[in-house]
Design goal:
The protein has 653 residues and is an alpha/beta fold. It contains ten helices and 42 strands.
Length: 653
């Protein structure tokens, strides 16, 4: 008769036998060295080894009398149950930092099949406990099994590898074994099994047997192997268990148009500057360039066919095709899969069609509702441009109202129907002409002509060709105006003698660079003068002091280096000034200043390098340069082309 004590004694004998069989005796200069040798010999990591010291080593004296350590090493799996638990705890602690493992005890499973008695033992996880051998013996007893290989049972429990191992036999009665019935439902998309419990001496169904019975019942697709394995370990007899599901067909996705621009124009996108939302940057205009891809088409998909549990195919519908709809200034690629802009402009989706508009129209004012405008075409503002806002265009800008303390910048022409009130901060730049009713307290720079119907008051205006004023109140009062060819107005200056500086016969841009160069030169010369004084002081001090301090010597070196840098920059500035002066002298256009009505005292006229201060009032005169002297001649009317343009502007304004 097998007793619990006899089983325990047998297990102890087996443990010692395994230890003697798998242990290795190794030596090394230290215990650690010996353990490394043992790990190599056994083919497992050092941390998985236990050892016993057979003989202590010694370092000796000067290499004499040195003795190696000798140990008996063996795998930790051969330790006692207490040792195994401790090692398992350490490993769990190490791995817990990396991942959370659920705590679960090792389990014991016993199955009686047509081939015999099978035992499976699983390892614990987390802080779970190992399955004890007595638990396996108890389960075998509960199933009425008394004939089994005790040594094999012990080994199965010890290894706990989660596999069913045959450990014994029983009196098999095929009449009383479990039976399986299958039920196919839901249009053959689900299959259930019901298993009867085995009778006395009857066998339970194995995983392979269940699979075979299902297939013989016509269930060949979507079988849930995990559900079968779960039933094998935890049988639920006489219950309906879902063991297979069909695969539904998936219709193909429809073709999709992927737009590379915002099609929802009502959605306002705000930008932050220094942590604050800038309500001027609303980004309502979406610019595109010629050749830019505006949209691409994702082709329709074919779809995936499904299958019932009995293997019948379930066809899928292919996705619907759609075409990219295009409107003005947009073309399709050769394969029809992309929409491409043919011009610079604003992209819009109108009634499902992609359009690119070369003109962007603001129906009212440019303000917080519209935000700043940046457009790769022409901008038309039907209202005003309010203070603090910016309008930039790659084409023209036309403002039906007035322009305040803001920035206008166009690569083409700028037309302001009412006028520009810059409040000393407004800036306007045009790539060709500027046409306005008036300009007041603003900074203006144009590449060609400034055409004003009323007047220019206290402004800084630069034009690479002409500044022309013609109208009932076409006066230029105050400020500084520079033009290459001509400055023309009805009146120049004012009765009050307001200083009004008018320069012609120059390139305004180069003249501005020359002004900045002279300003920088003056700054550097003052800095150099101060440097020279400091260097002289230190050099005189060095002459009279025998031991010149190191910090003062360092300071002297730094000052000399700085002087060299300034001298180099002064030389470069001097070269630049000479080049600009040479260019300005080479300009063939002489330039002239004309007043169709009056010129008041206080007007300063510069033609090339000559100047004249008007000290008396004159009528109907033109100032020109003759023999390096500014002379007054009979009034020369404005070119008819510009006269007609200004007349037309006056009418429309």
């Amino acid at each position: 008769m097998i007793t619990l004590e006899s089983i325990r004694e047998y297990m102890r004998d087996q443990l010692e036998a395994d230890r003697a069989r798998q242990a290795v005796k190794v030596s090394g200069s230290s215990v650690e060295d010996a353990l490394e040798n043992a790990a190599i010999e056994l083919g497992i990591p050092v941390k998985r080894l236990e050892y016993e010291i057979v003989e202590h080593g010694s370092k000796g004296m000067l290499g004499v009398g040195r003795k190696d350590w000798i140990i008996l090493a063996y795998p930790t799996a051969l330790k006692s149950e207490a040792g195994q638990a401790a090692a398992g705890q350490r490993e769990a602690d190490e791995s817990r930092e990396q991942t959370v493992i659920p705590d679960k005890d090792g389990e014991v499973f016993v199955r009686l099949t047509s081939e015999g008695v099978f035992l499976k033992v699983t390892k614990p996880t987390g802080r779970g406990g190992r399955a004890a051998e007595r638990r396996a013996i108890e389960k075998l007893a509960l199933r009425g099994v008394s004939s089994y290989d005790a040594a094999l049972v012990s080994k199965v429990v010890r290894h706990a590898d989660g596999e069913y191992i045959k450990v014994g036999d029983y009196q098999f009665n095929p009449v009383n074994q479990s039976t399986l019935s299958a039920d196919i439902t839901d249009m053959e998309m689900k299959a259930y099994m019901t298993v009867t419990p085995p009778g006395p001496g009857g066998a339970e169904l194995s995983f392979e047997e269940i699979r075979g019975l299902l297939q013989s019942s016509g269930i060949v697709h979507g079988i849930n192997n995990e559900a079968i394995r779960r039933f094998v370990d935890y049988p639920a007899y006489s219950e309906k268990i879902l063991v297979a599901e069909g695969t539904k067909s998936q219709n193909g996705a429809d073709a999709e148009i992927i737009y590379n621009f915002n099609v929802y124009r009502d959605e306002v996108q705000l930008k932050e500057k220094n942590g604050r939302v800038d309500f001027r940057e609303l980004n309502l205009v979406e610019n595109v360039e010629a050749g830019q891809i505006l949209a691409t088409k994702k082709p329709p998909e074919e779809g995936l066919a499904g299958r019932t549990v009995t293997g019948k195919s379930l066809p899928a519908k292919p996705g619907k095709n759609v075409q990219i709809e295009i409107g003005k200034n947009v073309k399709l690629s050769d394969d029809g899969m992309s929409a491409i802009s043919t011009i610079n402009g604003q992209v819009l989706l109108i009634l499902g069609k992609i359009n690119v508009e070369p003109i962007y129209t603001v129906e009212g004012d440019v303000n917080f509702k519209t935000g700043n405008i940046l457009f790769l075409g022409t901008v038309i503002v039907k209202g005003n441009v309010e203070d603090g806002f910016t309008v930039k265009a790659a084409g023209n800008i036309e403002v039906m109202g007035s322009v305040g303390k803001c920035i206008l910048d166009a690569e083409g022409e700028i037309i302001v129907h009412q006028g520009i009130l810059g409040k000393n901060e407004g800036k306007v730049h045009a790539g060709s002409n500027l046409v306005a009713k008036f300009i007041e307290n603003a900074r203006v720079e144009v590449e060609e002509n400034v055409l004003v119907s009323d007047g220019i008051i206290h402004s800084f205006v630069d034009a690479n060709k002409r500044i022309l004023c013609q109208g009932k109140r076409a006066s230029i009062v105050g400020g500084r105006l520079r033009a290459a060819n001509e400055i023309h107005a009805k009146t120049l200056g004012s009765v009050a003698g307001t200083e009004t500086i008018l320069e012609v016969g120059i390139d305004p841009k180069r003249k501005e660079k020359l002004t900045q160069a002279f300003k920088r030169k003056e700054e550097l010369e003052k800095e150099l003068e101060e440097l020279v004084r400091n260097i002289s002081t230190l050099e005189n001090l060095k002459k009279v002091q025998r031991n010149f301090p190191e910090d003062k010597q360092k300071n002297l070196s730094e000052l000399n280096d700085k002087r060299s840098v300034i001298l180099q920059e002064l030389e470069e500035i001097g070269t630049g000034i000479n080049e600009i002066n040479s260019y300005l002298q080479s300009i063939k256009v002489t330039g002239k200043v004309s007043a169709s009505d009056r010129v008041f005292p206080g007007v300063k006229i510069f033609i090339k390098n000559e100047n004249l201060i008007v000290r008396n009032e004159f009528k109907n005169v033109t100032f020109t340069l003759e023999d390096k002297e500014i002379r007054m001649v009979k009034y020369e009317p404005m070119d008819q082309v510009f006269s007609r343009r200004l007349a037309h502007a006056s009418v429309t304004h």
